[in-house]
Amino acid sequence: MGTAAGLGAGGEAGDEAGRAGSPPPGRIVRIYRYPVKGFSPEELAEVSLTPGDGVLGDRMFALARPDTEFTEDEPVFLPKTRFVMLQKDEAIARIRTCYDPAAGTLTFGLGTPGGQVRTDLTSPAGRAVFEEFVQSQLGPGLGGRPRLVAARRHHRFTDAGGAGEAFMHAVSVINLASVRDLAERIGQPVDPLRFRGNIYVDGIRPWAELDWTGQEFSLGAARVRVLARTPRCAATTVNPDTGDRDIRILKELSSHYGHMDCGIYVTVLTGATLRPGTSLTPPGGYEEALPCES
Hints:
The chain is of the alpha+beta class. It is built from six helices and 15 strands.
């Protein structure tokens, strides 16, 4: 898993950065997907975005709580409270997962040597192995064994999916300068992975992105439109490495900025392949967002 220091460095070279000899002012730094809702991120070397869709393989599985009814062949949006989630089940932050879509297997464990298990998610028996492991970690408060469900028919287990198709397939963008500014205000490091974004960018002014709702901007050759600011929940209080609730992020955001937002949801208008180092061009009329030391 990445760290705040690694995400904040912003020195990765991409195609555009390599041609210019130095990173462009506004740029992509890291790219992530979260195959299983609420569980650990997987860093990507590149992502190919297509119009109207999100990051391939993102939020494609979820663990339905024992009393949740969900039919894979007739999926409907359900609030995140119907699934195992960081906001309520912070212990899952200690579980490391890695999904192999080609093989249909999930490798998981607590990160201890020899503690990783690989299971086949294409079979009920294989899914049960993961379900039982999570149940053992969460204990009796879960109320029974959760059920691993898959997203079908263009469904995704995104928190904002109830707002419509565009939000269900939105890409989450986090400005690392905003996270650094928050860390400076509260006087302690803040791991950007608390915000579980897909694309982490740098080289723009802190919080500039929150003014872009309804505007279009470019990520390399991709064109995106900002759907909304991303409101935050108590999942951000959980340390993504330890599973401890150690920073009251919502209180800090409200106290220092008067809101509880961090990041933006964007919908893809023009697709392209993105990599770390790919440039970010702000919306027209918002060029003042760029001159930022990072």
